[in-house]
Structures are given as C-alpha cells and as structure tokens.
Amino acid sequence: MLPADCSRRLVAELQGALDACAQRQLQLEQSLRVCRRLLQAWEPTGTWALKPPPGPETNEEDPLPACTPSPQDLKELEFLTQALEKAVRVRRGITKAGERDKAPSLKSRSIVTSPGTTASAPPQSRGQAGQAGGHASDTRPTKGLRQTAVPAKGHAERRLLSVGDRTRVGMGARAPRPGAGLRDQQMAPSAAPQAPEAFTLKEKGHLLRLPAAFRKAASQNSSLWAQLGSTQTSDSMDATAAKTQFLQNMQTASGVPQPRLSAAEVEAEAGRLRKACSLLRLRMREELSAAPMDWMQEYRCLLTLEGLQAMVGQCLHRLQELRAAVVVQPPRPCPVEGPPRASPSCRGGAEPAWSPQLLVYSSTQELQTLAALQLRVAMLDQQIHLEKVLMAELLPLVSTAQPQGPPWLALCRAAHSLLCEGGARVLTILRDEPAV
Amino acid sequence: MGRRRQRVDPAAGARAGALPEAIAALSRSLPSGPSPEIFRRAKFDRPEATSALWQLLFRVLSPLPVGNALASLALEAQAHLVKSALCSQGYPRLALAQLPEDGSQGSRELLLALSWLLARGPVPEQMLAQARVPLGDEMTVCQCEALASPGPPAPHMEAEGPVDVRRVQWLMGKLQFRWRQLVSSQQEQCALLSKIHLYTRGCHSDQSLGHLSVTEAEMLRDPEGGQQASGAGVAQNLDPAYPKCLHSSCTPGMGPRTFWNDLWLVCEQPGLLPGDAAPLDPGGASACSLLSPLRALLQTLERENQRLEAVLAWRHTELVFWRWMDTVLGTCAPEVPAAASQPTFLPWVPERGGGELELVVRELQALEEELREAVERRRAAWEAKAGGCGRGPEWSAARRASREAVEKELGALQQCWKQDSGPARPHGPHRLVRREDGAAGERDLRAAEVIRTLRSQEACLEAVLRRLQGQCRQELARLVGALPGLIWIPPPGR
Predict the structure, then answer these.
(1) Which positions ≥6 away from B276 have C-beta within 8 Å?
(2) What segment(s) does the record annotate as region Disordered (chain B) (predicted)?
(3) Which chain A residues are within 8 Å of B359, Cβ to Cβ?
(4) Chain B, 133-152: which have a CB under 8 Å from a chain A CB?
C-alpha cells in the first residue's frame, strides 16, 4: 500500500486526467449527434431558404422568423397540433404499407421512438407525408397519397401551414408574403425541389441559402474585424507614445523607478530557459549521434558541443541572477498566472490576428490526420507530465522501503510497469533460490 | 462637457469635445462597461464610482470568460481577486492593495489601474475576441487554450486513505482506454464534418469560405429550435438542454469557446451581454424564453458588430484619453515605497507546481554535466588525432570557417527561445474550410503545414518521453539490481 499523501496526490492527478478526457469525450459525442442529424434527412420546417434553381425569385427576403407569437396564436397552434397528431396517427396507419425510402424512414422511425418528442410540431406531420412519398423526385405518389387521404386533413394541413407561417412570421410588418412564397412552391410543378419535403444534405446541400439578415450581419462582422486588424498595424504613433509615457509616469509615481519583476515575468523567463534546455539537449543528442565522416566534421562537432556548453553556462548564470533577484525582492507573494489569455508556452506574438484565420484542408484523410496528430500531441504532453509526477512519487518509495519482502517486490514491479512501459507491460520477477 | 463639436483631429490636443467621445467609445467597447459619468466621478475619487470599477476590472482580469458562477461572486470576493491578479502582473502602485474591498472608496485608484491595463495591451480587442461567436467549425492549432482552461480541481476528490498501487495501475489503464475512445470518436467526427462541408459547397455567400459550417447548417435546419422541444407546440422555453447538446458543436480541436454555449449564455443570462438590460422583445414573456437560435445568433452578431464599431472609434480617439489620464495621475500624491511587507494574496487559480526556477536549474545542471563529459572526451580525442596535423594556412582558414559556421548556427538556435514566440506561430482558433485545391491566402494555414509541425512536435515529445522512461529504467535497475536471488525478466516485445 502506498502512503496516504502519496496516494492522494497520485489518484488526484490521474483522476484529473480522466475527467478531462471524459469532458472531451462528452463534447465530441454531442457534436457527433449534431453532425449525424445534419446528414440525415431534414425535417421540413417550412422556413428554410432554398434556392429555387430556375424560375423567378418571388421574394428576396426570406421567411425570417421574427419575434415570438402571441399567446392567442400559440393556443391556436396547440389545438392545431393536437389535431395533426391525430392526423399523423391515421396517416401512419395508411402509409405504413406504402413505399418507404431508406433515409427518411429511418428518420421517421427515430422520431416516433424518441422519448418525449411527440410528433406534434406541425412540420413533422407534413414531414411524414413527405417521407411517405419519398424524395422530391418522387412527388407523384405523395400527391396521390395526399389526395387519397381524407381531403379535409390535407386542407387542415395547408391551413395550418399558412397559420403557422403567419404566426411564425409574427405580428407586425411582415405580410404573409413568405407564407405565400412557400405555398407557391408547394403548388409548383413537381420537377422543382419542393421545400416542404424532406431532403438530405447530400442531395440538396448546395441549394441551401443563408438568411439575408444573417448574411448581412456576418459580412459586416468580418469586415469590422478586418478593419480592426488593419488599424492595429497602423496604430497611431502618438497614441503609443502617450501610453508608454503614462506607464512610465505610473511607475515613477509609485516610488519604484524600475518595475519589479512580477511573478508572471519570472515564470515566463523560467519557461523560456526550460525551452532553451530542451533545445540544447536535442542539439547535443544530434551532435553526439552523428558519425563524423572526416576531420573537418569532427572539428565542427567539437566546436558545436563546446558552444552548447557555453550556452548552458549562460542560461544557468541567468537563472542564478533570477534566483538572487527573487530572494532579495520577493516578486509579489502571489504567483498567479500572468495576463489573461496568455499562456506560458504560446504568447500572443507580435500581432494577434483579430480577423478569423482559415485552416484549409483538401480531403477527409487530411483532416483526420490533422485531428489525430493533435490528439496525439496532447496525449503525449499529458503522459510526460504524468511520468514526471510518477517519478517524483514512486522512485523515492522504492528506494526507501526497508523490508524488502514481497510487498516491496510488487511495488517495484508496478513501478517499473508504470514508469518504464507506460503501464502497458509488466515485467516478471523470478526468485532464484540458491540450491540447497 | 456634453456638447458635441465638429470632428476635429483628436491629436491636436485635449479638446473638451473629444474626451467624452473617447470615454463613451471606451465604455461601449468594454463588456458591461460603466457609463462615462463613472469615469468622471472616478477622477474626483467619488465613492459611488467604486463598485462599478471593481466589477469592470474583475471582468477584464478574469482568466476565464465570466460565466454565471463568477458573475455572482460578492463584491468583496471580486475585489480581492482583482487585487491578486494585478499584483501578479506587477502593478506598481501600492495604494491599490490597501483599498478596502467593500467598494466604499478608491475609485480614482481603480481608474488608474484600469488605464494601466489598457496601456499595456489591447484590452477591448482581447475581450471581444474572447467573447466572439464562432460561426464556423473551429479548430485550435496551438495548445494554449488546452492549458488555460482547466478549472478548479474537481470536487469529487474524496479524501482517500492509502491505496494499493494496483489501483494506480488500473487508473492508468483506464486513461489509456479513454484516449483510444477519444481518438476513434474524433476520427468519425472529422469524417462527418468533411462530408457536411462537401455537400454544402457552393452555397455560402462568402466566396472565400465556399461551404457552410455545422453551426450554419444547423441553424438552417432548425432555425426555431422547435424540433428539440419536448412537449407540444412552439410555445415554451428554449429547452436549455438543446444548446447544451450542441455544446461544443463542431470543434475538432475541442476549444472551450463554442457557439451554442455562448447562445445558451445569451439566453439564460441576458445581463452578460454589453448594454443589454432590456428584454429581448417587447411583447414577449420572460426575457428570452422564446428565443429561437436564429434570432439569438443574429442578436449576438449585431451586438458584436456594435462593440466592434465602438472599439474602432476608441482607437481613433484614445490619445485624448491618455492625456487626461496623465492629469488624473497628477492629482494623486506620489507614493513612498512601503518598507512593510505586502499582504499576501491567494492565487486566483491554483497554480500548477511552483518552484519553476528550481526545476529548470536542476535540468540545466544535469545537461551541463553531460555536456562537460562529452566535450572532454571529444576534445581529448581530437587533440590526439589532430595533434600531428600540420598548421598550414589552409588548415587555419578551414578552422576559422568552421568556427564562424558553428557560431551562426548556435546563434540561430538561441533565437528560438530568446524571442517570446516563434515566428508567425498562429494562435487561437481557426475556421475549417474545405477546398479541393487546398489553396490558401497568406494569413491562412494549410493543413499540410500544420501536419508537418505537429509531426515534428510529436517526435520531440516522444523523444522526451523515451528519455524519461530510460532514466527510470536505469534508476530502478540501480535500486533493485543489488539484491541477490532475484531475476528480473523484462516484458517481451518492444
């Protein structure tokens, strides 16, 4: 058994890593759900903006849902949805035997069986109708079904559509034009893709169109960000000078002419030197492992190693300076992380780019490789951290354990497995009894 | 001072008209920025301006975006954290640390602190970038966010007694398994994402993007948010589970900033957005209970645009502000450096391992030792070999050339850590865009390059890990090797 404090630290560390993983997994799963749903057939809500490919654009404005419906309309909607639920049940009975397409039917089944989601929203019932008919290309059976079904229901549907749209469009300025637009589409010849029907992203994805208001806001947004980026670079010299002057005045007014090293700066410097250490070590490895071909190369190798040695000396010297400064003038007894949004390893750089930058990829394979590598780097980071923690905890235990009996052997075995094999493999210990 | 003048060149001097403009722009550009009146009161050290300034400083200094939990902290707690954060950044004035935390006085001091922060960095832009609504599928290339985001340690850390080392082994194995799971989920998500991008190509209004992101597609699919409604009809609260479901909708890099998370914040906390106290629609019921995702998105975008405009205005007029701040500073008495020690502040976020300096010193000393041995060996070998060589002119010329080359190389190496950040090391989230030809502008990243960088990083880290494991192996061998009567059989396969 490990001592209590050691156990606590180890378990806390590992548990933290596990929790971080679990959180990421959760996020991934949620986004997976979204993506999967997007790739299945879309329930027609009647408020999409599809590009009607040929034919006149009846209205440029999209049926943008405005504000909230009034309570009275909502009540009406409720009644209607109840009526439609019934219609759906009846229709399902009728169309169950009818032709079903793979994707839409999946969708309908999932809708039906999903808990708590009643088939109550008006669009869904129409979706059922659409689905029973299949894709847009297959509209004749749809129409036929609608006609064979109780006409009253179909009428109710259409009425609902108009009401629903009007409601959604809301009170105020908006005329029922968008609703009319949709109705037009609905009566349009079957060749044109019909908005009310279900479709998959695969077929109609390229026809989608973002709402006009959104487009405007988004383009304004990106142009403003771009402007921000350009003013950053051409920042007025006067303002910068005024700022520096102000900072200096603040410093002198506080009575301390030189800004004291803040904890953040000490940490940053230490981080830089740590990076230096690893780079130097890497270079040393390279030099030592290279086999010199001739004397010239050997000489260069020697010079490089000596140069590296000198640099290490400089770094150590700088560290001693820092240490001394820290001792003489404690850098504020609150070693907290530095300025917000700056991490030790990756400062903002000279100019943070404000406008959004793109990451361009060209194939699924590439994206997957990219993501996999990112995860791998993160995982390795974590593993190295854990390794250091384990080393700090386990090695002292192994070395100081006094009675070297079986428990200690078990500890050694576990320590070896954790520290040297990443917990993946375990070695075997054989007791070699001296022959009696 | 409220009179509007013609827009004159603000650099011409501190004119009475330009200052209110500048302050107004500043307050519009900051989240829940205080009114210009507060600024003026603060100059005269009026007490009523104090609490607003504490809260503003808290928001500016908070390392994480201010969520519900943080926003509801008491003023005293916020003030305390502000002091701690300023302290660690090296704020020079001592008067701040001595201010009472109940918000009863000290507004001028707080104004100075705010200006100090504003002078040091582009604060409004940073806050805006942090609160930004990501419209695209974002992927974070560098690891900053991953490092910065761990919150306070999970509370479910039961005070355990001593555990068996096998439990540690088990936890380790569990961790490995979770990582594997993560990788496979990630791969699937990338495939789906790629498909969505492929299928929607050609329909984005912005030509440079070319296709929809998951966020945009989702908004199109379900602009009302009605499909997630549990219960009849549209009339109900935007089911809080809905945005949470899309919590981190499409970030393969799994950054903490997410579109739907922000939306949820918008819907649940209208007060968090700048200048938003009024309910979102005049006739509606409770403020945002009936907000559709599309509507919410539009509103956030519009608000962001307003703030962007305010920031641009601020940048144009800020010179006046700085002149004014100099006068404010002038009204304060100069401080005397306190001989007494400062009160200690607890760190804001639990630090990860203090004693950085010591660790680095140890590592460097170990490296120094290795180098010393290697150099001695090589030098001795070289002297032995080259001792017999002639000292001709071409020989010394060659040596000089070598020396210079080595110096240049090592100088370049030194630059790698001397400068704070790598050259053009891109930072922050990037929007994923699929293009068949892979063409990219000069500010954009290409996936192939990023892959290269990541591969080299991976190799580096693997080398480090192997080295550590080798060290452990040696150490353990040393510790146990002395015991007789035991045979250690290493595990097979490597």
Answers:
(1) B270, B303
(2) 418-439
(3) 274
(4) 135-136, 139, 141-144, 146-148, 150
> Which tens digits make up the pLDDT trace of A275-327?
888 888 888 888 888 777 787 888 888 899 999 999 999 999 988 888 776 66
Query: What end-to-end distance do the CA atoms of chain A give, in Å?
Result: 33
Q: Which residues contact A192 (CB under 8 A, 6 or more apart)?
A: A52, A53, A54, A55, A185
DSSP code string of B278-344: S-SSTT-SSTTTT--HHHHHHHHHHHHHHHHHHHHHHHHHHHHHHHHHHHHHHTSPPP---SSPPPP
Residue B190 and residue B211 in contact, taking contact as beta carbons nearer than 8 Å: no
DSSP string of B7-25?
Answer: ---GGG---TTHHHHHHHH
A17 touches chain B (CB under 8 A): yes
Q: Which tokens in the block code for residue B222?
A: 């379900």
Provide the residue type at B339 as one letter.
A
Neighbours of A54 (CB within 10 A): 6
Q: Which residue of A has its CA nearest to B398?
A: A296
Separation between Cα atoms, residue B439 and residue B146, nearest integer Å: 29
**The complex's ipTM?**
0.70
Higher local confidence (pLDDT), A197 or B176: B176
Optimal mutation site among A9, A15, A30, A38, interface B, most CBs of chain B within 10 A:
A38
Closest residue of A to B490, CA-based?
A: A427
A window 134-163, beta carbon within 8 A of B: none
The whole-number mean pLDDT for each consecutive block of 10 residues of chain A, a chain of 436 residues, reads: 85 92 94 90 64 45 47 73 79 60 42 40 40 40 41 44 41 39 40 56 77 88 84 70 88 72 74 84 83 80 91 90 66 37 36 71 93 94 89 85 76 90 85 70
**Which residues, 6+ apart, have CB-to-CB distance to B484 below 8 Å?**
none
Question: Residue A147: CB partners within 8 Å, gap ≥ 6?
Answer: A154
Chain A residues with CB under 8 Å of B428 CB are: 352-353, 357
